[in-house]
Amino acid sequence: MLKFILLTIIIFTQLQAQLLKYDIKPSWLKSNSYKNIKILDSMELDFKDFNAIEVNELSALAYKKNKLFAISNRGYLYHFNIQIQKNKVINLKLEKAVKLKKKNNKKLKKKHRDAEGMVLVDNKLYISFERKPRVDIFSLNGKRITRYKLDDKLENIFNYQSKNKALEAIAYNKKYGIIVGAEKPLKNEDSKYHVLYAKNNTWRFEADASLTAMEFIDENELLTLERSFNSFSRQRIIILKKVTLTKEKNTISKSKILARLDSYDGWHLDNFEGLTKVGKKKFLMISDDNRGFFQKTLLVLFEIK
Q1: What SS3 string covers 30-59?
Q2: Which end of the chain has the lower number of beta carbons within 10 A, N or C?
Q3: Would you kindly state where each structural domain of the chain is located, as residue ranges?
């Protein structure tokens, strides 16, 4: 009877848990360091519905002063309070969940709400979309403020490899402004290179997998997240890469692979799509569970060595 009671308590606790222990590292890796990164913490998120809004398919992150913002590709914006101490996520509390809305407070139509990338600039969220490719500026309450103008070719879905391969990544700093990148190179681009687009410049860097997120490391260096996800073989690959930008026009940028993680090598991975900076050379990345029974929402804290 005692064992049954204890088991019941454990199961109930797990069902109610919001942060579950989850180690992405392979069993053969005896330290937290691998190549040019160090895994500081990793966990599975298991949040129940919040005000009748599901908490899943998280595709992008943004961070500022213990506030973690996340979006889903179903058009929801989430506000978390996050506490990171001694290189560990000690608390993650979901405080708000809202639908992304138009200026008139109507929710976005289905093909207009496929949010994939996000960056926080002056307390406004710049969000990039697939299917109806664009960058829109939203308030922190999820209300659309205005459109951020891109080159016309980036707002035409027929220029992309498919409707689901459009504006996946977005980043910002004062020197270069807003930069966006497609998951796959556009139809008229060389498939060997990802292309990053700013107002007055473009950069190319060697493509190893699909580009899903990017974040500035410092003034001239970007951290890019590339991933390969095969639902049939169940192989997952993550490539974290440092890309160096210059003000030189239309250049092929120097890039360096910091770490390549492959589930076939024992890494416990999922469909990682979101990335944000939380400290000097420290980042969080998150996976989109696709609302799939066999997939997880994983949150990983790591640093560049």
Answers
A1: CCCEECCEEEEEEEEECCCCECCECCCCEE
A2: N
A3: 20-304
Q: Which amino acid is at 175?
A: K
Tell me the CATH number for domain 20-304: 2.120.10
DSSP-assigned states of every residue in 100-138: -B-TTSPBPPGGG--EEEEEEETTEEEEEETTTTEEEEE
pTM of the model: 0.92
- CA distance linking residue 54 with residue 255, whole number of Å: 38
CB 21 within 8 A of CB 76: no
User: Cα–Cα distance between 115 and 76 in angstroms, integer?
Assistant: 9
Whole-number Å distance between alpha carbons of 154 and 65: 32
Structure tokens at 170: 């977005």
Q: Find out whether 154 and 259 touch, Cβ atoms under 8 Å.
A: no
Tens digit of pLDDT for each residue in 179-223?
999 999 999 999 999 999 999 999 999 999 999 999 999 999 999
